[in-house]
Protein: p-hydroxycinnamoyl CoA hydratase/lyase
Amino acid sequence: MSETDVVAFSVENRIAWVKFNRPEKRNCMNPTLNRRMMEVLDELEFRDDVGVLVLSGEGTAWSAGMDLKEYFRETEAQGLGATRKAQRESYGWWRRLRWYQKPTIAMVNGWCFGGGYGPLFACDLAFAAEEAQFGLSEINWGILPGGGATKVAVELLSFRNAMYHAMMGENVDGKTAAAWGLVNEAVPLAKLRDRVTDVANALLKKNPVALKATKDAIRRVGEMTYENAEDYLVRAQEAANSYDNDGRKEGIRQFIDEKSYKPGLGAYRL
Ligand code: ACO
Structure:
């Protein structure tokens, strides 16, 4: 397999389908994959024919987390500099994904472990197969959930579920992951792609400037006081207006003057 093949992608009807593509290694993330994923994200982010990005995995796994051999053992054997570089590369593309220009959806088709929680959280929305299995398996091989995984657990789960999940190293299926808030929803694997396509198509009908401002706002205000959030949101909308001042005016016009839609029931015509 060539180095570029570890990530597969295609663009169909404005949806970029990006896949972890090391199925024979359950899509665990080695340095090659991490570097390639950053390149692919770069390539797709500002393409006009891309409106939504979906991240899924080839084969039976979404991602079996970090590659214990190549990311940990072999990198550590090269010293601290190599370890830090490998960390920068993996954390780097997850961070890039957290603040991606386009809406992002994790389509979790199978195994999702440890380091996989980084890109899982990085995606704005997440849909899982009921058959998928999620685990913070770090404790099972003797480390804490690093690389942001503990933070993801605390952000998304209740205190008790986060503690149990991280300390016990037991897996939960897609349904439980949805009940816990780790993903939005779980559907049978056979229906997963259709459901994600429907969600992506709905997002494609919304104002893209407003979507980017909204997803950033959701991530940012969590750690602000109410007063700071109020101020940030005023400024964020005003900044969005500088890119797209006509969009919201058109949204108001179609509702108030044209009476062609109701914002409470759907989106205006782009
Ligand atoms: N790191 C390195 N190699 C891996 C990883 C991984 N995370 N996951 C799977 N592989 C490799 C296996 O070593 C095996 O390689 P081989 O064919 O050369 O022997 C191949 O992928 C297939 O794996 P199997 O274990 O044979 O696949 P199976 O379908 O039976 O099991 C499962 C899948 C449950 C995902 C299992 O591979 C597994 O437990 N993987 C590790 C999951 C994990 O704990 N990841 C680390 C999380 S912690 C962190 O990311 C910091």
Summary: Residues 80-98 form the longest helix (19 residues). Residues 7-204 form a domain with the 2-enoyl-CoA Hydratase; Chain A, domain 1 fold (CATH 3.90.226.10). The chain has two domains: 7-204, 207-257.
